[in-house]
Amino acid sequence: MRTERQSAGCLCPKHARAIGRMAELEEENVRLKARVAHLESRLRTEVRNAREAPFGENTPSSKLNFKKDSDEAARVRQGGAKPGHDGHGRKRVAPEEADETREAPAPSACPDCGRPLLRVAPESREVRDIPPPRFRTVRWTVGRGFCPHCRKAFSGTVTGVLPRFAATNRAIAQNAADRYLHRMTVGTISRRTGMNASTIIKEDEALADILGPCVHRLRREYLEADTKHADETGWPCNGAHGQYAYGFFAEDVALYRFRKTRKGEVAAGVFGAREPHGVLVTDRYTGYDRPWSGDRQYCYAHILRKLLRLLKKEPDNKEYQAFVPPMAEQLRAAMALRSKDLPPEGFAREAEAIKSKIVGLANRSAKDPALQNVQNIFREHADRMYHWARGPDIPADNNRAERGVRGLVIARKTSFGGQSEGALWVREFNQSVMETLAMRCADPAGKLARALDIYAATGNKSDVREFLFPKSRTGRLDRAEPLCQPSEFLHPAVQ
Prior knowledge:
Low-confidence stretches: 4-8, 66-75, 475-495
Shape: flat
Strand order of the largest sheet: 5-4-3-6-7
Helix content: 40-55%
Number of helices: 16
Structural class: alpha/beta
Largest sheet: 5 strands, mixed
C-alpha cells in the first residue's frame, strides 16, 4: 500500500510539500497529546498528594499515597543498564565455593501421559538461605588455684561475659538491639532465643545500670547542639493512661524520658537552669515555654495540616479557597528550602522572599474565625516563626522529632506501653543509647558488645561511656557544674 508521502511523488511540488507538512503536523499532534496526558497525570498526582499526604511535599516518597510519574508515558520508558555497564545483578559462585550442594531430580515419567522422559542436560540454580537464629550454650571449665604464700585464691577468666551473667555480652547487646531498634517484645526475643523472659528482663536492667553515665553524656551533647528538636507521645503503663514518652533529638543524638506527667517539669529536667544555646524546634505545645527561654521555631508541618483540614472540611468555602492554597504553597516552600543546594546569598534571597509572602498572607484581612486563628499564630508568635530563614541548619518543621517518636508509637502498639513503672528507667536509658549508636555506627549491637567486654575487664562504667561516646564534642558546657539532680534523672541503682 502506498503511503501519503509515496503518493506525493505523483503530485506537483506544491501539493507534495503540503501533504508532507500535514503528515508532520499529525505526528506532532500525537506527541503533544501524549505530553498533555503525561502532564495532566502528574498534576492529578500532585494535587492528591497535597491533599492527602501528611506533610505535603515534605512527605517521604515511601509515605505518598500516589507515586509520581505513574502514568502510561512513564511506564513505557526504556529501562535497563546502558550498553557496556557491568550491572548490579547477583554474582554466581563457583560450584566448589557453595556451602551445600543438593539435587532436585526430574520425574522419571511424564506427569501428563506417563511415558518415560528423555534425559537432557541439567541446569544449575543458586539460592541464598540463612539458618534460624538460635543461642548455643557453652560450658566453661574454670580453673582455680590457691597461693599458700599469699593466702589468696585465683580463678580463670571467662571472656566475653559479665560476672554472674547467663548470656554473653554479644547476646545481651543483640537482645538490646532487637528490643529497642527492631521493636521486638520480650516474649518474641524469648521465643527466638530460648532464653527465659525473666532472665532477659534482669539483664536488660543490668545493662541500663551500666549505661547510666552514657545518658549523662548524651544529654550534654543535646544541650550543646545548635539545633534541637523535642516531641512527646502517650505511653501507657501497666494498662493505665496518663503516662508520656518525651523525645529530645539533635542531628545524631536521641534522648528519651518516660514520666507520669505532661507538664513542663519534664522538659525543665532536661534543659536545666543553664543559659540556652541554639534553636529549639517543636510544635506549639506550651510545656516547653517556661523550661526553654532561648530561640524557638514552631513547626510549619503542623500548621499546614491544620490549614488542609479546614479546606477538606469546607471545600466550597471561598475564603478558604483564596487563603489556604497560597499559604500552603509558601509553607511547603519554607520546609523544602533547606534541601536545595544554594549558596548563602541565594538561600537568604529565597528565604526572604518566602518569609515576605507568609507575612503578607498572615496580615491579610480575614472574616472566618478559623483563618484568623491561623493568622494569629504568625502575628502573635512572630519571634518563633522565622528562624528557619537564618540558614539551612534550622528546619521549618519538626520532622526529626516526629520520626524519632514514631518508633515508640510502633513499640506501644506491640507491647501496649510499659508493663511496670520500675521498668521505665530501663527503657529510658537503653532506648537513648541504642538509637544514638544506630545513628553513629553501622553495627550498634557489635559496638555495645565491645563496650561490655571493656566493662567486664575494668568494672568501670565511665570506660563504657568513653568508648561509646568519647567526649563532648564542642566543649561549650562547664564540666564542673552538675547537669541535673540525680533524683530527677537517675534511677537509685546508678546514683
